[in-house]
Amino acid sequence: MSKKFLFYFILWILLQALVEVNCQMTPFKPPVLYKHTATLIDNKLYILGEGVLNGKSFEKEFFYLDVSVPFNTQNLLWQDLSNINVIPTHNSATSVRGGANNDTLILYGGITNDQTMTLVYTFDPQSNSWSIPKIMGVNNIRKSRLTGVIHDGKMYLWSGTNNPDNYEYMNDMLILDTINLSWGKGSLVNAPTPRDYYGATLLPNSNIIYIGGNNDKTFSGNAETLNIVSGNALTLSEVYIYDTINDNWSTKITSGTIPSNRAGFSTVLGLDGQRIIIFGGFFINPGYLDTTLYELDIINFVWTVPEVTGKIPNPRVWHKANVIGKYMVISFGIGYDNSIASDILLLDISNNKEYVWTTTFDPSIPNNNVTISLLPPPSSSHSPLPSSSTISNTTPAIAGAIVGSLFGGILFSFGVFFLYKWNKNKRKQGNQENQAGYVIPIHGNENFNNYDQEGTLTSTKRNVHNSGQGTMLTMLRNIVVNKTSRNEAMTTPVPVIDRNYRQEMPSDENTTNHEQIIPVPEDNRNYNHGQEITTSFIDDKLQIFKDEILQAVKQEINQNVKNQ
């Protein structure tokens, strides 16, 4: 009896160890995200927003990517923080890095149906906690679909829209002082027409450049081709400059290879501080293959198409872009299949003569012939990557996984040795027990996977001693071979774009794409609830394991009673 219990006890510990190691080694896979925020703080790229998986909305998505260590875009090690996320479900908000020490995530605005959501939230990466700051001054305007720009601790919030049901384009420049926590306003003299989904980037001379966008309520686009199919986006033949020091506006006329009208794209400042790089967005297809990667020389305001090598990815819309080290890091969006393509795109922009699409991230600072004065100020949300000496927070998790694996291996080895010795002793007793009517086959032909309708193990060759053991060993093997992932494979839904649009077919005779376009209101979308991901596999196996232990013990007791 004591050997039986010791046998089950060792298998139980071994099973628990394997389950623990399996959970530690299962990577977090985020759902599809767009209209999210992406904020770089202390070598961590924090992603916050409303995710979608198989038509179901995920409201508390909050995670980060550690960029202090090398990685490959096909094997991203996201760190999930959704369990500490207190922000109500929303989209189309904006965020920056600010605060007194320039190490706080500042979140403003967004579209939400939750009346409890405030205008501003702050996240402290040191304590991993959210809070609602008390801000002096009066501002009751909730804006969305805008891009916030941070400079000297002040967050500039120009235009955007307000009400998601009967929205209006906001004609204002709100200024949030993230250090002193107070509201202010900037000048609108000579300001451009109000808009949303534009590009905005801080320049080295403390100016902010605003590019493109949309101010047409009939605007809609195709989520696969990214072509504008109704309404129109704004031109990129002119750009707008806001001087944060003198609080005034100016307009610059551009030339060269001017991109077609577009909205929902991303912009970053080049590493030399002399060019703006844009990617993606909804655009007008003029009848020829339109590229989605351009650069604007901000000295002469000339557009060009940069030389690019590497595998060119599908364009995206409603994504985010950050400059990290020598890369333009593009995160999520729509326009790609995330079961095939990575959620992160890397464009090496260290060589102005030739950009490179790559899948490998190197955290070292590029060796550029660029003076420090040309780079963005330290408070910019697109500042270069800090020193790689920062210790990665993933180290404890990796160490835990390694220790867990070693511990599981030791237990497994001990269990195998014990089973070998136990079975060897049983063989020695085999002849004596056969005379008393016992049959204990060690390598028999029993089928331990056949169960009747009552869930009872059925076999033509079995007895009370080997039935429980065989079933548990089979189950253990299956757990080791078939590791259950924390998340199923993600598929990108084909979202339908913007506002109050019906099913329509492009009527432009010059348009070659005649697939059906099925837009849906963006702000009030209802997701079809598909089957939810189940994580009950291990629980079911543990329950079966417990039941079989109890059954084997009962049979052993009954057999001993009969023998006595």
Automatic annotation (TrEMBL):
The chain crosses the membrane at residues 397-420. Keywords: Kelch repeat, Membrane, Repeat, Signal, Transmembrane, Transmembrane helix. It holds the Pfam family Kelch_KLHDC2_KLHL20_DRC7. Residues 1-23 form the signal peptide. PANTHER family: ACYL-COA-BINDING DOMAIN-CONTAINING PROTEIN 5, FIBRONECTIN TYPE-III DOMAIN-CONTAINING PROTEIN. This is Galactose oxidase.
